[in-house]
Amino acid sequence: MKPSAGILIYRKREGQLEVLIAHHGGPIWTKKDDGAWSIFKGLLEPGEDPLAAAKREFSEETGKNAPHGTLLELEPVHRTDGKVIYAWAAEADYDQESIVCNTFQMEWPPKSGRIGEWPENDRAEWFDLETARRKLHSGQSAFIDQLEQRVQLSEADDSA
After folding, report:
1. For the segment 75-124, what is each residue's pLDDT rounded down to a tens digit?
2. Which helix (H) or strand (E) holds 97?
3. 65-73 long-range contacts, CB within 8 A, separation 24+
4. Are 111 and 10 in contact (CB under 8 A)?
5. 29: burial class by Cβ within 10 Å (0-12, 13-18, 19+)?
6. Measured distance CA(130)–CA(142) in Å, rounded
7. Can the peptide bond before residue 109 be classed as cis, meaning omega within 30 degrees of 0?
8. Of 154, 7, 2, the residue nearest 74 (C-alpha)
């Protein structure tokens, strides 16, 4: 199974961490919510550096340049199906309404012969960490746990 790489965007609002995640697009995900969201990520091309792939996928899925500045490397997530996801976290404040995602084509309904086109992600929203853990596709909530721990450690270092 090909690995994926992505970027988890976070911000601090009123003393709370929030993350910007995307809802999967297409007819399969239309009526699903919990477990139907993802960080901005995608498949690595053969021989591609994971960080380069994460930045490319972020741009494709948001229509925005990847964040500048420090990217916090998170531990890769190894899903139960064998897929590995590499991720970096970045503090930034994107307007969720201005995000425009690339599209894909697929036959829908299956075996109908009709080809439709949908955005890879149909919307992005800011969520508190507890809500994001519930919304994210299985396995990706580990990135929220890592982010929370890293930011808390960083804040403790800053106050020392």
Report:
1. 999 998 899 999 999 999 999 999 999 999 999 999 999 999 999 999 99
2. none
3. 66/7, 66/90, 67/7, 67/9, 67/91, 67/92, 71/7, 72/147, 72/150
4. no
5. middle
6. 12
7. yes
8. 7
Contacts of 3 (CB under 8 A, 6+ apart): 43, 44, 50, 83, 84, 85, 86
Nearest one of 43, 41, 45, 84 to 61, comparing CA atoms: 41
Which H/E stretch holds residue 3?
none
Q: What is the pTM of this model?
A: 0.92
**CB contact burial 119-140 (16+ within 10 A = b; e otherwise):** bbbeebbbbebebbbebbbeeb
Both tokens of residue 143? Answer: 């990135």
Angular region, 142: left φ>0, alpha ψ -120 to 50, beta rest: alpha
Non-local (6+) Cβ contacts of 158 within 8 A are none
